[in-house]
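hey all, quick one before standup. I had two proteins in the batch that finished overnight and I want to keep them in one place so we stop losing track of which output belongs to which input. First protein below, input sequence then structure tokens straight from the run.
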Amino acid sequence: MIVAQTDAGLHASVDALRPLMYADGGSALQDRPGHVRAASAVRRLGSRLVIVQDDVNAIAFHDEESEETHARLLPRGPGGRRVFDDVIGNKKGKLDLEACAALPDGRLVAFGSGSSPMREKLAVLGASAEPRVHDARALYGVLRAHAGFAGSELNVEGAVVLDGTLVLFQRGNGAARGGLEPVNAVGTLDLAAFLRFLDEGGPTPELLSVARVELGEIAGAKLGFTDATLTGDGRIAVLACAEASPDAVRDGPVLGCRVGLLDHEPLRMTDVLDAHGRRSTLKLEGIEHRPDSPLTFDVVADTDRPEEPALLGRLRVGET
């Protein structure tokens, strides 16, 4: 069991927020809006930030030099659609890509949340090749079967490669069911075994270790993991949001967000503040280390409003 502790020696603020609009606008032919929607993870690939979306079958590439954002399409989903939401009435068909890990060979792999059978997919992409989507139901079956990791509802939200392992972060924002409660947890897989499964159709990797995490709450809403990344000095930084959502599928108002450092000590966390020093209520869903500072990160925020673009910002964490 890992118990998060609020650390007065940590402080964090988010600023430099800007909307993520595509340089070439939207495309009705491609079934793609003119902005990034529901940003859920971010990773760096060369000079570009790769931004995963959970309700559009497209990956966004944001060039840090030109500040332009372009889309790379994923295959169409049910009904020939790439856009999925409650307004259209096809939300159940989305891939729900929620986490992304950087592999040692330079590729990125995005993970579906696993909160439904449709969401048991992996999307693999590199610097130039078209993304490929893999059916990973066997892997998600392993994750779901481990009650200590999945709890009542599986919801994978973060993925990090560290020391020969793939570290997965489970978000405990589900509903109690079947005698199980929702849990936040950290699970590890052997990276070599995962790559054999991914690239060669090898045996399904098993969980090597699982640790349940108590993240606490904000204003009565339980905190749940939303992403993780490596810091510049080799630790793991995690994001967690307190979202008043009824289960792992539906959204709710965000009451606050915290960032934490996970190393050999207990998980130390602090509230993320806005530019005015108030607790931020942004739904920070993705975090990636910036190479110019050990504890400065790019973050993406999901507005939970399909007509509004996701936001890209800067998160600065300080230690005293």
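OK second protein, same deal, sequence then tokens:
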Amino acid sequence: MVDILIFSLIVGIAVGLSAGYLGSIMVLEKMALVGDALSHVALPGVALGLIFNFDPMYGAFVFLFISTIAIWHLKRATKLSFDTLVGATFTLALAIGILMVPQTDLLEALFGDITKVGLFDAIIGVIISIIVIFLTKIIYKKIVLSLISEELAVSNGINVARINLLFLLLVSLTVAIGIKITGTLLVGFLVVTPAAAARTLSSNLSRYCKLSALFGAICATSGILLANYFNLPNLPPGPLVIFTGITIFLVAALIRWRKKISV
């Protein structure tokens, strides 16, 4: 049991850091709901893993990868926004996934199961999170520049379409490895709320992205530790991750409000 807790915490820290870091871009791009919707798109892949007895994380990523490529091509063809395209597909994927998931495994698919996190999961989680953070750091300024002006970004030799595709694939990777901790229903939260809290407290971009990653790690690890402390069989860490994140966001909002009224 101790080993499972340690492995879960390692995965939680890794996922929280990468999700929070990525989320700082999504909040800037006003794509917060995209991260949440992509997590639902993964459910059919998770269902396939449960049905055919292989790691649901792999099924989730394959399904996310295919969906991301399809959405990216549709955006280029239709000129619609990412949130519109993802919003149009995620409910369908969620419905298909729920129909496919065996009833006995539905809670695991939706809310995760830390009892199935092992050493291999911890190693994979750390490696993928390091890759995600490294690649995100490389493209961070390019994405921010494209937010300011896409024409300016293009004139500086930035391929905005490819940068957006890489970014969405990085989000898909993070969602896939976070599914065991929070499940498909809640993993999108880690990409949104820590970044929102960090945005409330940050006065510059560097502080913002670092705080976002830190809050993401705190949310994930706190949820896991609380679930382990209460030790209830029907209490997965996912909802507790949410409660921790909302608490951080409310505290951040209160600090911001007190600063405003004291000025």
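Flagging for whoever picks this up: The two ends are 50 Å apart (CA to CA). The chain has a mean pLDDT of 83.
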